[in-house]
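Quick one: FAD-dependent monooxygenase from Streptomyces purpurascens, structure tokens please.
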Amino acid sequence: MAEVRFPPQERPVSTVVETDVLIVGSGPAGASAALALSTYGVPNLVVTRYASLADTPRAHITNQRTMEVLRDLGVEQEVVAQATPQHLMGNTTFCTSLAGEELGRVRSWGNDPLVQAEHELASPTRMCDMPQHLMEPVLVDAAVARGTRLRFETEYLSHTQDADGVTATVRDRLRGDTYEIRAKYLIGADGGRSKVASDAGLPMGGQMGVAGSVNIVFEADLTRYTAHRPSTLYWVLAPGATVGGIGAGLVRCVRPWTEWLIVWGYDVTAGAPDLTTAYAESVVRKLVGDDDIPVTIKSSSAWTVNEMYAERYSNGRVFCAGDAVHRHPPSNGLGSNTSIQDAYNLAWKLKLVLDGTAGPALLDSYTAERAPVGRQIVTRANRSIRETAPVFEALDGLSPQTPEQLWANIAARKDATEAAEKQRDRLREAIAFKVYEFNAHGVDLNQRYTSHAIVPDGTPDPGFARDPELHHQPSSRPGARLPHAWITSGTRTLSTLDTVGRGRFTLLTGIGGEGWVRAAEAQDIEIATVVIGPGQEFEDPYGDWARLREITDTGALLVRPDGFVAFRHASAAPDAGELLADTLRRILGHA
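--- reply ---
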């Protein structure tokens, strides 16, 4: 019998595919959502319109909070093994080219000795530089190994939803036919031009396309210009560097010291340049400053700087995460970090709703908690671009002028005159102020959630003692991330953060907190219990936990699966069981 062939538009729709959670997109948000859901035992399916995972470095800075998430999900060591370590990231250099004059440096990404101490006190993890084309396989491989189904070359087209679920229509880009996927929930993690977010009608603030940029990935051995000042980023102040882009020319290390990515701006009103190999090599030569060193161009792509954020992250059973809901330049290294943390926040809530432990109202807390974070990081990243202008201003490099005049201005800073001394002062101050981009430890760790999944304890908020963008301030207040302290269990040393997570709630108390332990064990939901004190399973030999916990030995902290404090009681309570039950009803949407 002859094979029956249908024209593409007449091919029959295949049998409906079913899953609990459909994830559109395999980038950091989608891949980490899949990993978390599969770790929690939730069936999920990832579709991506592309034939492979990321093939360019793109996002790369991986901060401590994200490393904590990856630690809980069991892939921290895989990331550490492939990433550029923190000590090779931190000599952020401002120069006329890599081979040219150096104008100054900023100790970055926790490598300033004082900031490094804050990093070590804040977390059991270390930040690192993990390019996206290396990060995605780690996340996806682990997700698939734990049960995620993954379909490449599968394009999301549309969705409809009803009271029981979501029906998405997708197109197999290899066969050309369309079919339906039926899921109880849909996660749109399909990037900065998210069709899922658009179809879901998520309201957006801000604007797209505020400036034009080009990424150029290339190979070159730049050891002679970089190994003595190891860094992730080298900022180049050259003629044309203030046109579009991210405030200056940028040479970014992908792999020390032979693989690189350049960011160079263009006038977005005039359109992107013709990205020929010759054009790409000319930009590389301009920023490297060496016309003789061998260079191999690997890829070039144009993109736009965006300043847009979603005001709401969900509509019914459709949720969006990552660049779909916060679109911004790479400044501060916040993109993939916030994306992974979005997914981590959402995954445990979906798990508890799907298994009947929580009511659907729990999912309302996703927008309440993550949308303010998204808006903050969009604002911070775009402000960082604007904070580069004073570096040029110190060199009188913003007004229209010839390249020769800019070089003369740069040279003038070396003169033995009062004017040159003032210029040097302005330049040092402008470069030092970039700490808000390169050492914003508080932006990374100071999230404070407010939602019905957080139960206030009635105490006044003390605010922040220091700049909340630059400095992390640990707190056990409901809505804050559980403070890190090193404790021991037998011969093991572990973080307080290692006692929580793994998809379940945890109650922490001390000697005399037996009433809280009994209360936790009496609940219908699984709650791990951690008693810290002399002679207990966990001990506090340094006294760090006693200083950070902000409760007495007999008090209690109830910590959510994502490591955030949900409930705090300073001391013992005769009605601990009732308090804990009421708290859980509220958090789980049963109140």
